[in-house]
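Title: Prediction job returns without error message
Component: structure pipeline
Severity: low
Priority: P3
Assignee: unassigned

Description:
Job completed but the reporter wants confirmation the result is attached to the right record. Sequence as submitted:
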Amino acid sequence: MEVNVNMKRPIVIGVTGGSGSGKTSVSRAIFEKFSDLSILLLEQDYYYKDQSHLPFEERLKTNYDHPFAFDNDRFISDLEDLIHYKSIEQPVYDYANHTRSNQVIPRDPKEVIIVEGILILEDERLRNLMDIKVYVDTDDDIRIIRRIKRDIEERGRTLDSVIDQYLSVVKPMHHQFIEPTKKFADIIIPEGGKNQVAIDLMTTKIASILQESSKD
């Protein structure tokens, strides 16, 4: 992609929250609101670390809700390239083999970049690249119900396995690493995509920032 030196810096919007909080619904709302602009979604889930050097038995022990599970160096490098209007090759994670696959997804830079993931506000380097930071704040009970429904219907999991993983890993990691990042958010949305008033206020704020940016 040929870069126009006069192009404005893309607006970077971070959307975070716990598993089952409604991050995807909020990100989709932003997409729909600003569909007339060039916009892309960069998901942290694609950036789990490559573990091909580890035996498969060791990979099975990976805690995907811990900051150490992510390759933030690659994530930040790709985001910085997009901000400078450089195309990237986004990695793809193979959940069946618990490591990065050999595939990549070509991604071209856009005017608006939505960065989504459970721990995007945990790393100060990532936070510093964001213009707007959104935290989707949803009660634990609602999140576990959503997770049970999703994992059973879409991923073929058993009820016992979902509950065991939630209590042993997901919930403690949420309270240790994810929830504390709420203090870094510019906007907090209770109950995720079902809170239409909060989403309207958020998109209005984003529109205001985009308008101010276009005047610069």
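Comment from assignee: result matches the submitted record. The chain has a mean pLDDT of 88.
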